[in-house]
Design goal:
about 190 residues, alpha/beta, seven-stranded mixed beta sheet, two-stranded antiparallel sheet, binds S-adenosyl-L-homocysteine
């Protein structure tokens, strides 16, 4: 809650929406994408249980808002976005907020193998299945938070890597995200 209070959400929105930046709503950020609703950001952040120094990979940088919250919590942030224009705009805002996230452009369903393993992986778009590469980029003891389902409704799922080839799954509440695209997406 403190991290969210300290980040100016209106920075991440088109000035047309600035007045509504602190309402609990998702907004368009262009290119057919959205900045997630604050409730959803809070929900995913809580499930991540980030501490200072936790290494997190976020799939779907979008506006950069979620990444800035992770920075504020002291995480080491890696984030990947498939739309270069969004990544570009996010990188400027994150730099302005003094958030040193490592931002990449590419297909996040493949993860970011060069910097693996991650303590946490967070997917912020709706996935039809668990992208296989992400499972094996998790540190043992780490977990993946991913909204899994169809295009209309997804269940928030937590996959924990218990051992080399040992994973468990827990299901949480239902949400509606924009689609995850790419090799293991829609
Ligand atoms: N976390 C963002 C939410 C953005 S919405 C925020 O705080 O604003 C989801 C984002 O995922 C969109 O920007 C979309 O372009 C991106 N996305 C979809 N499929 C992707 C993929 N395969 N790799 C990387 N990003 C992807």
């Amino acid at each position: 809650m403190e991290a969210m209070e300290s980040i100016p959400r209106h920075y991440f929105l088109d000035s047309a929406f600035a007045e509504q930046a602190y309402t609990d709503k998702a907004f368009s950020i262009g290119n057919g994408q959205t900045i997630s609703q604050p409730y959803t950001v809070a929900y995913q952040t809580e499930l991540l249980e980030v501490k200072r120094g936790t290494k997190v990979l976020e799939i779907g940088t979008g506006s950069g808002y979620q990444a800035s919250i992770l920075c504020q919590l002291g995480a080491e942030v890696y984030t990947i976005e498939r739309i270069a224009e969004l990544a570009d705009s996010a990188s400027h805002i994150l730099a302005h907020l003094n958030c040193h996230a490592n931002l990449f452009v590419g297909d996040g369903t493949l993860g970011l193998p060069n910097h693996a393993p991650y303590d946490r992986i967070l997917v912020t778009a709706a996935a039809p299945e668990i992208p296989f590469p992400l499972l094996y980029q998790l540190a043992v003891g780490g977990w993946l938070i991913i909204p899994l389902g169809n295009l209309d409704l997804q269940t928030m799922v937590k996959i924990t890597r218990l051992g080399e080839n040992d994973f468990t799954r827990e299901d949480f509440e239902e949400f509606r995200f924009v689609p995850l695209k790419g090799e293991a997406g829609w």
